[in-house]
Amino acid sequence: MNVFEAIMSRRSYRGTFKETPVPREDLTKIMEAGLAAPSGCNKQTTSLIAIDDPKVLSKVKAVIEPPVAMTAPAAICVLSKRINAYRDKCFATQDYSAAIENMLLLIEELGYASCWYEGHITDDDRTCDKMAEILNVPSDYDLVCYLPVGIPEDEAKKPIKKEFSDRAWFNSFPGNT
Fold this sequence. Notes:
alpha+beta; NADH Oxidase; three-stranded antiparallel beta sheet; 5 strands
């Protein structure tokens, strides 16, 4: 699979996962892809924790309410540390977003599935803080995303996308010349 194929075939998967464990070598590759993402002024504000121990994963899943990805055999938690790049400019959100997208694409290429769970865990109930406590995350890091990883039991549904011509143009926004 080439990069374009991975981009075009990647889907958010919210279904059941097979019980097949994800080898640590694959989780390492996925995390390496995430950490290879661009980082504003190279501040490298993103860190990652892969969870492949069923006992630890069970504890983390137990605090996610409402439950998601309960059958995933592994997960990656994305951590962000606010570090100013220059003056008061911080690119932590862009940094972790680029890292997540890299990981999602490699997850697709390796034949696994995932879903970017951010708002679900960072909402007002602060599930992310409960997860961070289980994983011993220091207080100067924010746990910002939960990526379940596993072999999908079913095929993910393809979302309906607007036409290319409704969202992309050359040289000018249409009608504003």
